[in-house]
């Protein structure tokens, strides 16, 4: 199925689940309250359900990330959290009915609000915590906060939001007194709590029993390390090898399976029935990656994965011209895809016209790919290295991957720019720049396959525009349906 169609169908199904408690409330056929009060209840149910479903779009569901990609999951996670906060912030200001008289039991069909001091406090605390949580997430890149500190605070605050929100919903919500709606909230809360327990408790315990060990660590270019790991021979027979597809990534932990101290890295090897080794290309740029350079043979590594679906269009028979654009260690998943083509049983894959554009800051950062994969197996593969800060000895392409550079390279290789399929991997800033450039050259967004671990939705680029338009349409749909059902 076309990825865009699958993404659209998945979003529609997701919005259907978001509306599920609202649908259950309408099926009760309770006496109508004034429409602002009805709308307030609808906004509250949609908002809280969005929060509970956020736990399923953190990017840690392997099946979801493999089918739809990590970008789909994380952008749904980030954008719909904003909508949830907006709806929850608005809903208390819409009430017109008086609160219940002291000591009076309020049934779901009463013309009073069932709010008391405890449910008011839990509601306010949940909303304040949610706003702080979203604010920290939006400012994390510029805050100077350590990733591990931010992640721990994010998890703790998310847990507080759902627990406090559940108390408020089930004690102040009009419809939550009804059995089926209460059961729904209980199941949704249980799944949210289970997802936290899975990531922070259960998975680390499983990983502790399935450790990998370092086979080798070597510097293959300036401050770029090739890490090779595999299961110890004593556990190979009892522990299955990691199942992954070329282009995917995993989370790596060094020395201990603690949940906070992990980073995502793309796999540079490809699935091979003759080898259980996993290979990575890691650039030494921070504390965690410095630890990688200090590893020794047989040191323990813990792996969570695999995730993502980058590059799967490369095997499509209708895709005959491929342009692979990699920046720095973004070459890792590209290398994985190239290796998978050489090992495929389909000989037509080696006949495709492939242009590999490999960008780096300095010549000494270029990895010799010919030592890692048999490039001669391809009938029409051209590799072009681009350096932004060349030395005097450099004779190749110079500059950044802007429109002029890409136009010049693609024209020299005879690629039909508007018909080729593009695969882009590297730093988020580089991916945004390349996608903007390809857009200016007339390339459609569905011809560009990329995957990022960081998202800045303030950047003006085609993918962000599509994401924001989709978010606005989804938000308008939810708000429109909630309003329609409140006023009918």
Order of helices and strands: HHHHHHHHEEEEEHEEHEEEHEHEH
Largest sheet: 6 strands, antiparallel
- Domain count: the total is 3
| Rg, nearest Å | 26 Å
**Percentage of residues in DSSP E strands:** 15-25%
Tell me, rounded to a whole number, the average pLDDT: 87
Structural class: alpha/beta
List low-confidence stretches: 102-106
Q: Between the first and last Cα atoms, what is the distance in angstroms?
A: 38 Å
- What is the overall shape? globular
If strands are numbered along the chain, what order do they take across the biggest sheet? 4-3-6-1-2-5
Summarize the structure in words.
- With 488 residues, the chain is α/β, with parallel strands linked by helices.
- The chain has three domains: 3-206 and 471-487; 210-307, Elongation Factor Tu (Ef-tu), domain 3 (Beta Barrel); 318-464, Nucleotide-binding domain of ferredoxin-NADP reductase (FNR) module (Rossmann fold), CATH 3.40.50.
- The chain has helices spanning 3-18, 20-27, 35-53, 62-68, 70-90, 117-143, 147-172, 179-208, 287-293, 331-343, 403-413, 428-440, 462-487; strands spanning 212-221, 224-230, 249-254, 263-266, 278-283, 300-307, 321-327, 353-360, 380-387, 397-398, 421-425, 448-450.
- The strands form two sheets. The protein has a six-stranded antiparallel beta sheet. A six-stranded parallel beta sheet has the order 10-9-8-7-11-12, with helices on both faces.
- α4 (62-68) crosses α5, α5 crosses α6 (117-143) and α7 (147-172) packs antiparallel against α8.
- The chain starts with a helix and ends with a helix.
- Mean pLDDT is 87; it is low at 102-106.
């Amino acid at each position: 199925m076309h990825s865009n169609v699958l993404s659209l169908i998945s979003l529609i199904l997701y919005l259907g689940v978001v509306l599920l408690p609202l649908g259950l409330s309408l099926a009760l056929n309770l006496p109508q309250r004034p429409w602002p009060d009805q709308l307030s209840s609808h906004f509250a149910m949609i908002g809280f359900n969005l929060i509970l479903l956020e736990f399923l779009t953190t990017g840690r569901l392997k099946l979801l990330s493999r089918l739809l990609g990590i970008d789909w999951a994380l952008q749904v996670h980030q954008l719909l959290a904003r909508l949830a906060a907006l709806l929850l912030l608005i809903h208390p200001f819409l009430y017109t009915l008086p609160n219940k008289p002291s000591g009076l039991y309020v049934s779901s069909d009463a013309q009073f609000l069932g709010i008391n001091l405890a449910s008011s406090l839990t509601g306010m605390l949940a909303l304040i915590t949610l706003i702080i949580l979203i604010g920290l997430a939006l400012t994390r890149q510029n805050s100077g906060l350590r990733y591990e500190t931010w992640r721990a605070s994010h998890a703790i605050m998310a847990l507080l939001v759902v627990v406090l929100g559940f108390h408020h919903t089930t004690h102040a919500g009009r419809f939550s007194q009804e059995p089926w709606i209460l059961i729904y909230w209980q199941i949704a809360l249980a799944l949210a709590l289970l997802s936290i327990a899975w990531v922070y408790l259960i998975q680390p315990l499983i990983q502790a029993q399935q450790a990998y060990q370092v086979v080798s660590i070597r510097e293959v270019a300036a401050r770029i390390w090739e890490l090779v790991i595999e299961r110890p021979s004593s556990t190979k027979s009892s522990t299955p090898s990691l199942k992954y597809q070329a282009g995917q990534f995993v989370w790596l932990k060094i020395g201990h399976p603690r949940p906070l101290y992990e980073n995502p890295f793309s796999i540079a090897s490809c699935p091979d029935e003759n080898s259980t080794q996993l290979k990575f290309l890691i650039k030494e740029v921070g504390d965690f990656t410095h630890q990688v350079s200090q590893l020794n043979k047989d040191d323990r590594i813990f792996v969570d994965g695999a995730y993502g679906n980058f590059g799967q269009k490369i095997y499509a028979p209708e895709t005959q011209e491929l342009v692979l654009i990699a920046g720095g260690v973004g070459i890792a998943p590209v290398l994985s895809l190239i290796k998978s083509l050489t090992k495929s049983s389909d000989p037509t894959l080696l006949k495709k016209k492939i242009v590999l554009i490999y960008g780096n800051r300095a010549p000494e950062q270029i990895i010799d790919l010919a030592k890692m994969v048999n490039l001669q197996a391809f009938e029409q593969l051209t590799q072009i290295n681009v350096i932004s800060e060349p030395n005097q000895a450099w004779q190749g392409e110079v500059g950044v991957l802007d429109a002029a550079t890409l136009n010049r390279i693609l024209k020299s290789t005879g690629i039909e720019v508007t018909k080729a399929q593009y695969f882009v991997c590297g730093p988020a800033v580089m991916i945004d720049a390349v996608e903007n450039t390809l857009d200016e050259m007339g390339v459609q967004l569905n011809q560009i396959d990329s995957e990022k671990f960081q998202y800045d939705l303030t950047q003006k680029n085609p993918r962000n525009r599509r994401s924001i338009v989709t978010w606005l349409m989804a938000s308008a749909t939810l708000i429109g349906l909630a309003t329609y059902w409140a006023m009918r």
